[in-house]
Amino acid sequence: MNLQAKLIVSALCLGALPLSQAADFEEFGRVVRVSPQVEQINRPRQECRTEYVQVQQPQQQRSAGGSIIGGIAGALIGNQVGGGTGRTVATAAGAIAGAVAGDRIDNSNQYQGGGTTEQAVKQCRTVDHWESRTSGYEVTYDYRGRNYTSIMSYDPGERVKLRVSVEPAQR
């Protein structure tokens, strides 16, 4: 071999030297068993329903404004009729008749009874709602005749890619 060929071979060997001392490399292990890691999560939720209940209606208040105005108007009209003591009696009778008429007119459209009616009542409560969720996988694999177990975020299938690291032993 001539000198030039020896130099080229030596240069290639020196260039490959760092590659031959690589401390990490990849291999595959055979998957023996995969167990999903399942956790229970509580997600409370609202359940609501509508019930119809009987409600007592309050009795409405009658307005006194019509009686007062009617009484004043009736007294003024009654005061115009008659003379002496008859005028006083006519004023009193006009005031009474005007008050009754004013009350009927003012309160004619109001419901007076205090009966019952149905009212919708919405009732809600919080109930537990449990869900199962897979949080990872316990993977047992064989590498060079020994079994190893790791927790992984995915199911690797039939084989798992491994990163092998080689380090010198410490004394």
From TrEMBL:
Domain of life, source organism: Bacteria
Keywords: Membrane, Signal
Residues in Glycine zipper 2TM domain copies: 65-105
Family matches, as InterPro entries: Bact_OM_lipoprot/Surf_antigen (IPR051407), Gly_zipper_2TM_dom (IPR008816)
Compartments, record wording: Membrane
Main location class: membrane
Presence of the UniProt keyword Membrane in the record: yes
Signal peptide: 1-22
GO cellular component, one term: outer membrane
PANTHER family: OUTER MEMBRANE LIPOPROTEIN, PTHR35603
Protein name per the record: Uncharacterized conserved protein YcfJ, contains glycine zipper 2TM domain
Organism: Rugamonas rubra
